[in-house]
Write the structure tokens for this entry.
Amino acid sequence: ADNATVAAKRTVPVGVDPTRASIARVYDAFLNGKDNYEVDREVLRQVQKAAPEAVDLATENRGFLIRACRFLAAQTGIDQYLDCGSGLPTAENVHQVVQRINPQAGVVYVDNDPVVLAHGRALLEENESTHLVSADIFAPREVLGHGEVRARIDFSRPLVFLQMGTLHHYNGPREQPARIMREYIDALPSGSYVAISHFFDPQNEYSPVARKMEEMFVHSMMGSGTFRTRAELEELFDGLEMVDPGLTLCADWWPDGPRIKPLNQVQRCIAGGIGRKP
Ligand code: SAM
């Protein structure tokens, strides 16, 4: 191969299509990361046309993820985490947040994006207690039956199960994410905790900004992003006892400090919560 071909092969990992946007790379672009292509940044610009503060969807989501993991590690004593849709390595990853509090905690990341799998093998599998598995998170049986998941997670003891910023990317029947969650929750041992965050329509199908962002996401090169109502999001937690303050805006889930300026319209379009399986 000539030098140019070698260089091209080096910059684009095997299995990656730089002409199509990917969920993980678009999210990385929203978080101002480096692991994204022009086609991913174009999705960001499209959604910014619907709402200039669009990046707040990702920053509020990630802030919730970090605070939730900190809480779970510090207060539940659980030492095993199954993180569906890990995303690209970023500033503070789940294993870093929980292992800072409990160095014994183990994390199994699951993703199916080739760039996440390539970068994640290098950066997420930082120590013996962190592992990255390639599987379809919308197929619970595939995840729960995966050899590496069974080997690393002890399903006879409580675990933390994360679906952060993932279920709104399911493209199919509107009720399916609730069914997917029911299957996961059924398989969890009693005393396990489940954390979910999701695009949110704060006005029960009447939020103009949620509808505009959804249209941009769905018609973009990425092709997914469903904003659900409070009632729809509550169904995802079916069978769980909600931890205070229940399902809420990510921005309002135990924020780090008092609020001195009002939430903008985008911060009102991402919600989450934590539930405990009785
Ligand atoms: N959980 C992280 C967070 O909240 O910061 C990352 C969220 S990112 C928006 C969603 C991740 O889910 C991406 O890394 C994407 O590759 C992954 N993902 C989407 N659909 C998936 C599927 N069917 N199977 C496995 N991973 C998937």
